[in-house]
Amino acid sequence: MITLTSDFRWPYPAAMRGVLASRTSARLIDVTHRLPRQDVRAAAFWLREVLPYFPPAVHLVVVDPSVGTDRAVAVFAAGDHRFVGPDNGVMVPVARAIDPGFTAWELTDYDAASSTFHGRDVFAPLAADLHETKDWTPSALADVEPVDAIETVTFPSATREGDVILGEVLVVDSFGNVITNIPAQEIDPAFGDTLTVNDESVPFVRAYDAVAPGTPLATIGSHGNLELAVNRGRGTQAFDLSQADAIRVQFDRS
Amino acid sequence: MITLTSDFRWPYPAAMRGVLASRTSARLIDVTHRLPRQDVRAAAFWLREVLPYFPPAVHLVVVDPSVGTDRAVAVFAAGDHRFVGPDNGVMVPVARAIDPGFTAWELTDYDAASSTFHGRDVFAPLAADLHETKDWTPSALADVEPVDAIETVTFPSATREGDVILGEVLVVDSFGNVITNIPAQEIDPAFGDTLTVNDESVPFVRAYDAVAPGTPLATIGSHGNLELAVNRGRGTQAFDLSQADAIRVQFDRS
Amino acid sequence: MITLTSDFRWPYPAAMRGVLASRTSARLIDVTHRLPRQDVRAAAFWLREVLPYFPPAVHLVVVDPSVGTDRAVAVFAAGDHRFVGPDNGVMVPVARAIDPGFTAWELTDYDAASSTFHGRDVFAPLAADLHETKDWTPSALADVEPVDAIETVTFPSATREGDVILGEVLVVDSFGNVITNIPAQEIDPAFGDTLTVNDESVPFVRAYDAVAPGTPLATIGSHGNLELAVNRGRGTQAFDLSQADAIRVQFDRS
User: Fold this and answer.
1) Nearest chain C alpha carbon to A39
2) Which residues partner with C146 through β-bridges?
3) Residues near A216 by Cβ (< 8 Å), separated by ≥ 6?
4) How far is CA A170 from CA A151, A181, A202, in A?
5) What gap in Å lies between CA B226 and CA B158, rounded to an integer?
6) Of A129, B118, B251, C144, which is the most buried if we count CB atoms within 10 A?
7) Per-residue pLDDT tens over the stretch B49-75
8) E-strand spans in C116-215?
9) CA distance B38 to chain A (A)
């Protein structure tokens, strides 16, 4: 199985599907091609959320704002999963989540038919070739060399002082839900209580539909962090928040 | 075969694909993940239009504004098709279209890793497990119980008095075509005549391209109902109509 | 293998997938369903860019503004590839790229359940049936007749006088990159030089990221033509250019 992820929208993902299907009969499953454009943090976050649900696969990941420069090509082995993409750190959090001691290879010397579309010319051929090696063995690929240092993407941590947590918007999802970096276990109040989020009092509930349509709420999302949303609306709008904005959460003690 | 439908856009459908692929080697075919957000009428309409064209399959359908509340999980058997999703009526019109006497089961007692993403935590595992039972037998699934009463979605009917039909916009498609609840057989005029739609005279034609580009028209869509459109444009704009708006059609007698 | 391409967005592609899956167990791969609406030039361009990367396949292509009129159904054989879609020229450039002497058949006498959705009612059944014939033989399909004259789409050519090239915007991609009809081999300057594009001086670089984020640039895209872009931005906006706009490129001699 090969999964495909990019920020390409259309039609470029189809060229990658064609290249893959020309070189391997592996099952192809699209993850998404609608990642926010050239946004390594969002890509790293969503890959870590989604790819662990897949069975062992070669994951082709192309969010590549530096295509055509001298950035390297990275290949990771984490458990039975493999990752192929530009060495820009996007694949590191998911590889680490699967296996904290994952191993890395790089390819720095390669030819490409274009300098603007390595998804088609470099990464897809490499992912297909890796899938065709016995046991998906990166070291069997020509010119792929083990490396110690790789680029990485890290997520900011929330900090806590008593009943106040200072965090940040990690990413925003396509529903307009605001996903913070504040883990569920840091939230002392129980569902049904209220939280003060950036000076606004907000019901902390188990389900979006626990409040009336159009009402802002705080909940714990499927990612395990505090999420700010609106029932059947967009949290980004109601809370006026975007990726990387600061969040201040205070517990209301009665 | 398992089909996937939701209003999730990205990246959440990928988590469902991963869960399914981890539990079954069934062929996966995406129907769409771009259904209008949390709109049970539109979902019910499009499922009834599209799913009957598929061969027998387990259809995973997640339009679920009440995720995390006590709404039940529904499993339907209609002919050789199976449906798995929240019990909110969305799957009822298509199940009824395939088999008016379809049978229903529910699951009310279940654990979920999250309260916001049952597509990943409840419905996808259930659809995969159902696909793996012999003959796709819902009663073989643990804790799934037959039920008599289920939630349902119904579509409003048009009414007629002489040469006047009073109807409603059922849904709007992604081309901006306005799909009404007025069946073709209620339209007495022939293609080439004109209709009066909400006081505007409109050519009633067989094909969009029978009028000049930019011209409003009425036709019979692939769903078999009266449709208001613009050749190479958007009917919603020209007719200023949205879902659930009233439509008054009068036949022009010469 | 059957590939699917259209300008349908959702949910209509799903009906085609269902029809195909009901008639053949062929592997189905979506190319894209987000081609610009009813835009035969853009469709012809992208198909020629993408489909040659696929292994031999039956390519179902439905960009069909004249659905329901008397336009014919076309079937092409180019090398080991087959193409099925409306006879409006969209498939000609890719067929010609694969085999300049490709052969064509037409179907002019056919029944369709609808006059607005031949993707579902005519083209998908035909593509599936073609895939099921031995060696994908178009002449084995009932009522399909060889033809000499077919509709065609051609792309305008750039012209050159000394150091000035007069060209045109062929298409715009989903990144907002402006793709011209000026081939790389017409550009005398080397990467690192500047070009004057419509009176604006622009760096001509190998990679988008060779200039600072937000900076306009000219490069050679993966299609082999001059492309006007902005690093991590939209070329269409910075250059104020849309499909079919004129481009005047002058080489800056030092």
Assistant:
1) C232
2) C105
3) A200, A202, A228, A229, A230, A235, A238, A239
4) 19, 6, 19
5) 11
6) B118
7) 999 999 999 999 999 999 999 999 999
8) 145-146, 159-161, 164-172, 178-183, 194-197, 200-203
9) 7
Tens digit of each residue's pLDDT (9 = 90 or more) over B170-227: 999 999 999 999 999 999 999 999 999 999 999 999 999 999 999 999 999 999 999 9
Q: Are A169 and A193 in contact (CB under 8 A)?
A: no
Which among A10, A65, A115 has CB closest to C174?
A10
| Chain C CB contacts of A37 below 8 Å | 175, 232
Cβ atoms of C183 and C191 within 8 Å: the answer is: no
In the block, which residue shows the tokens 């010609």?
A: C96
Q: Is the pLDDT of residue B254 over 80?
A: no
Q: Residue A254 — very low, low, confident or very high, per pLDDT cuts 50/70/90?
A: low
Write the ipTM.
Answer: 0.97
Annotate B112-148 with b (16+ C-beta within 10 A) or e (fewer): bebbbbbbbbbbbbbbbbbbeeeebebeebeebeebe
Amino acid letter for position A74: A
Give the closest residue to C44 by CA, choosing from C30, C67, C61, C65: C61
Q: Note the pLDDT of residue C65.
A: 96
- Between the alpha carbon of residue A130 and those of residues A74, A100, A154, A171, C86, the distances in Å are 12, 22, 27, 32, 39
- In angstroms, what CA-CA distances link A67 with A111, A128, B175, C211, C225? 13, 20, 35, 12, 17
Which residues touch A46 (CB under 8 Å, ≥6 apart)? A32, A35, A171, B11
Q: Which residues of C touch A (CB under 8 A)?
A: 1, 3, 5, 27, 29-32, 34-35, 46, 49-55, 173-175, 206-210, 219-222, 227, 231-232
Tokens at residue B51, please?
């799913």
Residue with tokens 């076309």: C74
Instruction: Using DSSP, state whether B220 is helix, strand or coil.
Output: strand
Q: Which chain A residues are Cβ-neighbours of C226 within 8 angstroms?
A: none
The Cα of A62 is separated from the nearest Cα of chain C by a number of Å equal to: 14
Using the CB atoms, write b or e for C147-162: b if 16+ within 10 Å: beebeebeeeebeeee
Tokens of B110: 């279940």
Using CA atoms, how far residue B142 sits from A236, A249, B74, B110, C3, in Å, is: 40, 41, 13, 10, 39
